Amino acid sequence: TPRTDIQQMNDREIATAYLLTLKRAGREYAWSAMEVSNPELREFLKDAFTMSCNHAYDVWQYMVKKGYYPLEPAPQGQVNTISSIYGKVPEPALI
Known about the structure:
Elements: H1 11-35, H2 39-66, H3 76-85
C-alpha cells in the first residue's frame, strides 16, 4: 500500500520512483526520435534513449540485489510457448 503521509522517502521508494522516471523518459525519447526530422536531433534522442535504457537496467539490478524487485524466472514451458509464436526475421542479404 502506498504511503501517502510520508515526510521522507525510504531507499525502496526512491529507487522505484527513479526507475519509473527512467522508463517514462526512455519511452518519450524513443517516441520523439521516431518523429523528429532533424538528423542531429534524432541521433541525440537515440543516444538519450540508449542511456536511459542502460541506466534503468542498472537501477533495476540494484533493486533486485536489495530485494525491492522480486525476480522469478519464467517456467521453461512458458518460455518455449512464447518463443514458438515468433519466427526468426530473415536478415536481408548485403550486396
